[in-house]
Structure formats: structure tokens, C-alpha cells
Specification:
Blueprint: H1 2-26, H2 35-42, H3 48-69, H4 73-100, H5 106-122, H6 124-143, E1 157-162, H7 167-178, E2 184-187, H8 191-199, E3 204-205, E4 207-212, E5 215-220, H9 222-230, H10 232-237, E6 242-245, E7 261-262
Parallel strand pairs: 1-2
Antiparallel strand pairs: 1-4, 3-7, 4-5, 5-6
Helix pairs in contact: 1-3, 1-5, 3-4, 4-5, 4-6, 5-6, 7-9
Length: about 280
């Protein structure tokens, strides 16, 4: 009886759960209203409802093979292959989602919990063997420096992309401190910050992002940043280090004539912590 419940009734219940979510999405609704659910959908290359259809197909196969496996040994092997393949797929999805999103998708967690319940009740021995594999997937995502799916520039103000070891950055921060300029620091130690700056086509720091109303001003390099406060005309003489970007990110270009610290260890840079920084002219 337990085998019938675990291999047939539970998969059918999970199938109904996923089908209900797909039906709600067709009506622009969802079982989960958490921010993590919406952000999880943004990570997919396709509409999230197609992932529900894939889940329904997978769980249907699990239910069919589970029913056949009760009397046929060869079907039992196929049942566990499909079941644990689905668990591995969902483990990767959940692991990446937890690493990227501020909170996991509750619907996905429900599907994952359902698959684990089927596996545990179907055969506890196999489940015990699979636990180290499942745990290793989550540990791998925990070790990777993955950019978060979040907004870094949330309100008006000055944001400084910097590094604690960068002498050019230290110079800008000292200038800000001496002149009482408030700013929010964005450390390149964060993969999310590196992803943001690299996406703008900029390879060196410091970078200042000044947001005011509907416009953003991007200034790269310690000399242009300081000059934008002391003498704005100097930054124009540098050949466009300071740019006003009302809408298009593609309007941003890095001027290689101004030395800075590379944000990637694979890229050459004239920056060194022990290297002196030339004084302002």
C-alpha cells in the first residue's frame, strides 16, 4: 500500500499542484506572490509557464512508471532514473535560485519538496545514497561568486564602485571625506557589482555613478571624478569621461587614457597598491 501511495498517489498530487499553477499563470496569477518567484521567472530564457509544462510531463512519467514498477522490476529501475533525474534538475534550479535571488520561489520549493517526499517514501536506501549528491549541488552554488538578481542603484545619490586595495579609489574616498560628500560604496568584491560595471563596458575603477531624477552621470577615473566636483570643465577636456545617460546604457564608453585599477585579475592594469598615484594638476 505504501508503495502505491508513494509511487502513484503522490506523483498524481504533485501533477495536480503543478497543473493548478499553470492554470493560474494563464490567468496572470500564481500560487506564490513572493518577490523571489517573480525574480526566478526573470532568470529563464522562456516564459515560466513552459517550465510548468515540463514539470507536468516529468511528473506524469514518474506516476506512470511508478504504477508499472509495483509489479515489474524493470520498470522500477526506470522509475528511479526519471525520479532522481528530476530531483537533480530541480536541485540545480533551486540551488541557483537561492544563490541569485533574495528569496526562493515558494512554488518551486513545493515541487522540490514533493519530489523528495516521493523519493524518500519509495525507497529510503536509495534516498540516503542520493543525499550527498544533492548536498554537493547546493554546496557548489554556495562556493561560486554569482551575481545577485538585484538592483544596486535604487535611489538618487552618489555611488562609488571601488576596492579597498585600489590607490585611485582611496584618493577619491579621501577627497569625498575631506569635502563632506556623502556616497554609497559598491565594492568590486561583490560579483553583482563587477557584473554591473562590466556590463557598462568599463574595466577599471574607481567609477562614480551619480543618479538624480531620471538621469545618471557616469564618471570613470579618480582625476575625472574629483574634477567633476572641483572643476567640471576638466572632465570634458579628458575626452568624455563624464557622461549623462538618461536612458541608454550603450552610450557609455570607457576612456583607456585614464589609468585605474582593473576589476578582473585576468586583465592588465597599471594599478598597484604600492604604486604612487600622481598628484592632481
Amino acid at each position: 500500500m505504501m508503495r502505491y501511495v508513494a509511487r502513484v498517489l503522490l506523483p498524481l498530487t504533485l501533477l495536480f499542484y503543478i497543473a493548478y499553477e499553470a492554470w493560474l499563470k494563464l490567468g496572470h496569477d500564481s500560487l506564490c506572490s513572493a518577490e523571489g518567484c517573480r525574480l526566478a521567472g526573470e532568470l529563464l530564457k522562456f516564459d515560466s509557464i513552459y517550465l510548468d509544462f515540463m514539470g507536468m510531463a516529468s511528473v506524469s512519467v514518474i506516476a506512470l512508471l511508478g504504477f508499472l514498477s509495483i509489479k515489474r522490476r524493470d520498470m522500477e529501475v526506470l522509475f528511479f532514473i526519471v525520479l532522481y533525474s528530476s530531483i537533480a534538475f530541480e536541485s540545480v534550479m533551486i540551488g541557483y535560485q537561492v544563490a541569485v535571488n533574495p528569496e526562493p520561489c515558494l512554488f518551486c520549493m513545493g515541487v522540490y519538496g514533493g519530489l523528495l517526499s516521493i523519493a524518500l517514501l519509495s525507497n529510503r536506501g536509495y534516498f540516503a545514497y542520493a543525499l550527498p549528491v544533492i548536498a554537493s549541488i547546493f554546496l557548489a552554488f554556495g562556493d561560486l561568486a554569482i551575481a545577485k538578481n538585484e538592483s544596486l542603484i535604487q535611489g538618487d545619490g552618489i555611488y562609488l564602485v571601488h576596492s579597498e586595495r585600489c590607490p585611485h579609489c582611496k584618493r577619491v574616498k579621501k577627497y569625498f571625506a575631506d569635502h563632506g560628500i556623502e556616497y554609497r560604496g559598491l565594492s568590486v568584491n561583490s560579483p553583482t557589482v563587477r557584473f554591473l560595471v562590466k556590463g557598462l563596458g568599463i574595466d577599471e575603477i574607481p567609477v562614480m555613478i551619480k543618479k538624480e531624477g531620471g538621469k545618471m552621470e557616469i564618471v570613470r577615473g579618480d582625476i575625472p571624478i574629483i574634477a567633476s566636483f572641483s572643476s567640471p570643465a576638466k572632465s570634458e577636456e579628458k575626452g568624455g569621461d563624464m557622461l549623462t545617460v538618461p536612458t541608454r546604457v550603450s552610450d557609455i564608453y570607457a576612456d583607456p587614457s585614464e589609468a585605474g585599477c582593473s576589476i578582473s585579475p585576468l586583465e592588465s592594469s597599471s594599478c598597484s597598491e604600492d604604486e604612487g598615484v600622481p598628484p592632481l594638476r
